[in-house]
Amino acid sequence: MSVIKPQVSNEVLSVDDFVSYSKKFLLDDMPLVGIKSSDEYIESEDFYKIEIKKSIFENSTFHNCIFEKASFIDVEFKSCDLSNSKFRGAYFERCQFTDCKCIGINMSDTILKNVLIKQSKLQYSYFDETRMTDVLFENVDFTESTMTEGRLKRFETKESRFVKNNFCKTMLNKVDFTNSELIAPIVSAPPIELKGAVINMFQAADLISLWGVIVST
């Protein structure tokens, strides 16, 4: 898959205090465009409905922050910690997450278009009712995260871990798990979510019991 990269200019404005800088844009309902925020630690701040475009966040921490119904277009997150932050109802287009820690992040009811998430930790995260188009998970740990009632279009995974995930009512047709781990998914009975998913012979041996098949030894 060829995910379109964020279109960020080399001439971005470095912001030393993102919380203070963003307040005037939030109050005026205006988008932040062309900024770079680095080496910040931010906790329990409210960025509800914030709009960010053509920007970079690097080596920064946003713990337990609110980004509900926010919009991110052409945004890069590099080596950031977004754990336990809430992005419910947010919109992402041409965004990239690299080497990020996103444990317990809530991405439910979001829209993701041309998004790359690589070398990142997404354990115990929530992607319920998420709509993904042209999204790639590369070297992502998605252990015990949920992705129920989602809609996937050209979703791809490479060298990632899908362990004990709740996929109920998310159709995995054409998703290729052969070079990733797929262990003990939670699905319907019968497992309609797995119809058309591409798996290898070892994964098939582990998943065959979901169809009520008993293998005799």
Q: Would you summarize the structure shown here?
A:
By secondary structure, the chain is mainly β. 8% of the residues lie in helices and 35% in strands.
What does this structure look like?
The chain is mainly beta and 217 residues long. The chain has one domain (13-211): E3 ubiquitin-protein ligase SopA (Pectate Lyase C-like, 3 Solenoid). 8% of the residues lie in helices and 35% in strands. It is built from two helices and 13 strands. Strands 1, 2, 3, 5, 7, 8, 9, 10 and 11 form a nine-stranded parallel sheet that branches. It has a two-stranded parallel ribbon with strand order 4-6.
Distance between the termini: 40 Å
What is the architecture at the second tier of CATH? 3 Solenoid
CATH superfamily: E3 ubiquitin-protein ligase SopA
Gyration radius over CA: 18 Å
Strand content: 25-35%
Choose one word for the global shape.
elongated
CATH class division: Mainly Beta
Q: Can you tell me the CATH topology?
A: Pectate Lyase C-like
Number of domains: 1
* Mean model confidence by pLDDT: 95
Give the helices and strands as they follow along the chain: EHEEEEEEEEEEEEH
Biggest sheet: strands, sense, closure? 9 strands, parallel
Structural class: mainly beta
Low-confidence stretches: none
Number of strands: 13
**How helix-rich are the residues, as a percent range?**
under 10%
DSSP helical segment count: 2
